[in-house]
Write a structure and sequence with these properties.
Elements (H helix, E strand, L loop, with lengths): L3 H15 L3 H11 L2 E3 L5 E5 L2 E5 L16 E5 L3 E4 L5 H8 L31 H14 L7 E3 L2 E3 L8 E2 L3 H9 L50 E7 L22 E4 L15 E4 L8 E2 L3 E3 L11
Parallel strand pairs: 9-12
Antiparallel strand pairs: 1-2, 2-5, 3-4, 5-13, 6-7, 8-13, 9-10, 10-11
Helix pairs in contact: 1-2
This protein binds calcium ion (CA).
């Protein structure tokens, strides 16, 4: 898998070689902080704070009602986001199970016969399963679990907590766009999507190992396509008309949870950066996985980094 982490490591070495002054040392530290690798080898990229135009523009002819109005959103705190979708091997390492449809024991075993699916995205897991993965991984690393889960209720006691979590829908779109305002992070032309994404035109009806396509400008792979990705937020198609500017986290109550990015199943229309989708929080699907996020401790990398 290609990765920005390699680039940053090289940069850090170069800076270290040139170093000696405080300025260089600080820059070296800053470069190293751009990616972190956690206890099970998951890489996360630092996403800087900033603002963007969320949602589809009025000129987008295929946008759905829930994608408008386009509106200004500020992400007020930097955060880390998984470089890749959570893989089947990582999910198995943390949870002891692999629910994936496209695995040797899954319903889609014929499609992936004869190949290891360790590096494929985990899928066929509910939104609650994704939250539980985050909490279990936090506990393994000695971090306070981010979510309080009781039966069908899940809440966030402290949004500044250090534990692993799902990105919010706004964080996801902000990271996906990586400064772009076009239909896709690669521009408006769907003809080049195959370089960046596994989707209907090239995926042959199944998931693929993460990280084989080109990343976006932030070094994030498979944001579009491969597995769709659960986000924290509940879905309300009218939410964009009343959303807060700063760090929106979805409506207080809603039917279903948001997932983003489109998948191996979908055509280019569903892979647009603005496209929203939803599914029951207890639902599972062979198109639907996730990537993890976590907060950034003041003055340094994520607390408890190793
Ligand atoms: Ca994806």
């Amino acid at each position: 898998m290609r990765g920005h982490s390699v680039g940053w490591s090289v940069l850090a070495v170069v800076l270290a070689a040139l170093g000696g002054t405080t300025g260089w040392a600080q820059e070296t530290a800053a470069a190293k902080d751009k990616t972190i690798t956690n206890s099970i080898g998951m890489k996360l990229v630092l996403i800087p704070a900033g603002e963007f135009q969320m949602g589809a523009s009025e000129n987008d002819p295929v946008a759905m009602v829930g994608e408008k109005p386009q509106h200004r959103v500020r992400i007020t705190r930097p955060f880390y986001l998984g470089t890749y979708e959570v893989t089947q091997a990582q999910y198995l390492a943390v949870m002891g199970t692999n629910p994936s449809w496209y695995s040797a024991k899954g319903g889609g075993s014929k499609e992936v016969a004869g190949q290891s699916t360790d590096q494929h995205p985990v899928e066929y897991l509910s939104w609650y399963d994704a939250l539980k993965f985050c909490n279990t991984l936090s506990e393994k690393e000695g971090l306070k679990p981010f979510y309080a889960i009781a039966g069908d209720a899940a809440r966030v006691p402290d949004w500044s907590g250090p534990g692993y979590r799902l990105p919010t829908e706004a964080e996801w779109e902000y990271a996906c766009r990586a400064g772009t305002r076009t239909l896709f992070p690669s521009g408006d032309d769907p003809a080049v999507l195959g370089e960046y994404a596994w989707y209907r035109d090239n995926a042959q009806n199944m998931t693929h190992p993460v990280g084989l396509k080109r990343p976006n400008a932030l070094g994030l792979y498979d944001m579009l396509g491969n597995a769709s990705e659960w986000c924290w937020d509940g879905y309300d198609q009218f939410y964009y008309a009343n959303t807060p500017v700063d760090d929106p986290r979805g409506p207080a109550s809603a039917g279903g949870r948001v997932f983003r990015g489109g998948s191996w199943l979908n055509d280019a229309r569903i892979l647009r950066s603005a496209c929203r989708n939803r599914f029951a929080s207890q639902g599972q699907g062979s198109i639907l996985g996730f990537r993890i996020a976590r907060g950034r401790a003041p003055g340094g990398a994520g607390a408890g980094d190793r």
